[in-house]
Design goal:
Layout lengths: L1 E11 L5 H11 L3 E6 L5 E8 H13 L5 E10 L8 E3 L1
Length: about 90
Amino acid sequence: MIRKVKILVSGRVQGVYFRLFTQNKAKHFAIKGSVRNLSDGRVEIIAEAENLAIEKFIKWCNRGPITARVDKVEITELEHEESLTTFEIK
């Protein structure tokens, strides 16, 4: 089953290569979507993949790369309307 989620990550997640590490981890799990910095200091991730891959990816997002400090992760389920083709940094 394909699942699409929005993941909001709070903490020290900007200026620590969080987006690049996220893109690499998404490629590892065959996840499509995007990652971008928000003006409030959080990182927003849109992720689409098989449910098991999404669960593993969310688990990683709760830790993040060693350069980051993740304080909070919020997950919102999204409608699977169109298939994404890549995972990009915005």
